[in-house]
Amino acid sequence: MRKYSSRPVENWKLEAVLEAGRLAPTGCDSQCQRIYVIRTEDSLRKIRGCCRMAFDAPVVLLIFADLSESWTHPATGRNVGETDTAIVTDHMMLRAADLGLGTCWVGYFEPEPIREAFGIPDSLTLMHILPLGYPADSSVPSGMHFKRKPLEDLVKYL
C-alpha cells in the first residue's frame, strides 16, 4: 500500500503489530531484530526527507539487525540476520492486515542518511522499512499484485 489516510494508528494496534514482530521466530532464537518506531511529526518529516518510499504513512517502522547477535550457520558461514528480520517484518505485516491496517515492504532506501538523521548506532544494519497506517480511500493495489505465475511453475512434487 502506498496511499495512507491521515487517521492515526491506535496505540494498542501498534503494540499488537510490534508484539507480532517480537514473537516471530529467529535463527537459534537470537532475536537480533531492533525496531525503531517513527510517529512524531518531526521524525516523520526526517524519514520522508531521507526516503521517498516512506510515503505519507502516520507510522514508519525501521527494522534493523544486530548481525553480531544473529545466528551464523556453521556449515555455510551464512549469517541469517536478514532472513530473521524478513520473518519479523512479515509477521508484523500479517498482524497489521488482521487489524485493518495497510503496509508496504520497503527495501529501496539509502541507509546512511537514515542512520545519520536518527543517530542509529553502527552496530545495527537497516534491513527493511515498513510504513504503517490505514488505507486512503483512493488506495488500490498495484496491477503487479495480480500477476502471478501458475502454481505448477513454482512448485515441484518429488
Strand and helix layout:
Elements: H1 11-23, E1 33-38, H2 41-50, E2 59-65, H3 81-98, E3 102-103, H4 111-118, E4 125-133, H5 151-154
Antiparallel strand pairs: 1-2, 2-4, 3-4
Helix pairs in contact: 1-3, 2-4
Structural class: alpha+beta
Number of helices: 5
Q: Identify low-pLDDT runs.
A: none
State Rg: 17 Å
* Spatial ordering of strands, largest sheet: 1-2-4-3
Q: On the 0-100 scale, what is the average pLDDT?
A: 95
Report the sheet-strand fraction: 15-25%
Q: Which outline best applies? A: globular
**Percent range for helical residues?**
25-40%
Structural overview:
- It is a single chain.
- The longest helix is centred in the middle third of the chain and has 18 residues, at 81-98.
- The chain is globular.
- It has 5 helices and 4 strands.
- Strands 1-2-4-3 form a 4-stranded antiparallel beta sheet.
- The protein starts with 10 loop residues before the first helix and ends with a helix.
- The relative contact order is 0.24.
- The protein is 34% helix and 15% strand.
- The protein is an alpha+beta fold.
